[in-house]
Amino acid sequence: MSDMILTRMGDGERVRLEAAEIREDILDGTEDAAKRAGIAPLSEDEQEQLFEIIADPARIVSVKPGNEVIVTDDGCSMSFYGGQDGGGVGAPLSRMQAVLTYERACGADTTSLGHSDYSYKPVKPIINFEANDYYNISMATTAPFFYGAQPNLGLYFQPDGPCPNAAELMPQGKIEEACQAQEEAAEHLQRDLVFVGRRLAEVGLEGLNFDTCGSAGDADFLAALKAVAELKKTVPDLPILMGAAGEFVLGMHGSVTFQGERLAGMFPQDQARMVAAAGGDIFGMAVSTATTESVPWNLSRAVTFLKATSERSPIPVHANVGMGVCGVPMMEQPPIDSVTRVSKALVEIGKADGL
Predict the structure, then answer these.
(1) Nearest to residue 143, comparing CAs of 170, 113, 114?
(2) In the prediction, which pLDDT does 2 show?
(3) 3-class secondary structure for the chain?
(4) Cys bridge to 331: 12, 73, 246, 300, which one at CB 3.0-4.6 A?
(5) Does the predicted model carry a pTM greater than 0.90?
(6) Burial of residue 18, with CB atoms counted within 10 A of its CB: 0-12 exposed, 13-18 middle, 19 or more buried
């Protein structure tokens, strides 16, 4: 039993694996990422470093002094007043109280505000209320205070939105109509992103977060890129964080381009380059967690993607370490043993600029 190491599966199940099994998972994970994205796998030394992080007997691990990085957040303060189904604890706090508690009690590097739906489309009709709340809370905060939500192209398809539903058209063989519907929806989304961003900038917005870009495919990613570029023309000093939805851009449309490059199939190293070209200030890298594989396998993949992206990105890269991304198990309340190992590996091996 002395050779058995406590770790987890991608769904959070606690398991004990032999050292040889963990090393094999690390090797398989890095080779999988390298093959898919056409990048270099982790070296033998880096694989051994990752093994030591995973095998550390302590419940919580951390980076060495001097290796600390900034932590940005996407609505973490909602965890105080949100329900358990969303990873929250249901404390009776207002949004301002939650933000200030997160900043002052938890020592947060950044704080943020977001609508409970966490998408930009429902924010547009209540923008005056959101702008008022943002302004009032920003008067009491010290740390950088973002406003964030997801672009969420899916909300622009029928029955919730004005455009024909591409997901219904494609199975019917109506590919051209499905592509047209996505292009039309992307135009609506771009306008809403710019509208909300400009309105919040009028009340002193300190940073804007486009979270989970590309969740509905390449047209979703394109709308966010175009919105960033348009916002930078009128509010060039507004910091914009653009986070991805996954390790590659889904080709739901397949042909949309940004600055002459097709977005479908782009892996993190190219996603970061596109975000920088649009004028984004921070790229939030995401790598999906496979629930049937171990944390060592998932984390090895994530670190491999991140290392290549950090080496090539012209802007800071903040690796997403939320529920079910970058090696973190797919759970509403991810276990601290996995989260800290993921964070340490992404920073010390993947060279993340932030989390």
Answers:
(1) 113
(2) 56
(3) CCCEEEEEECCCCEEEEEHHHHHHHHHHHHHHHHHHHCCCCCCHHHHHHHHHHHHCCCCCCCCCCCCCCECCCCCCCHHHHCCHHHCCCCCCCCHHHHHHHHHHCCCCCCEEECCCCCECHHHHHHHHHHHHHHHHHHCCCCCCEEEEEECCHHHHECCCCCECCHHHHHHHCCHHHHHHHHHHHHHHHHHHHHHHHHHHHCCCCCCEEEEEECCCCHHHHHHHHHHHHHHHHHCCCCCEEEEECCCCCCCCCCCCEECCEECCCCCHHHHHHHHHHHCCCEEEECCECCCCCEHHHHHHHHHHHHHHHHHHCCCCEEECCCCCECCCCCCCCCCHHHHHHHHHHHHHCCCCCEC
(4) 12
(5) yes
(6) exposed
In the chain the domains, ranked by start, together with CATH numbers, are 4-348 (3.20.20)
Nearest Cα residue to 183 out of 230, 240, 238, 226: 226
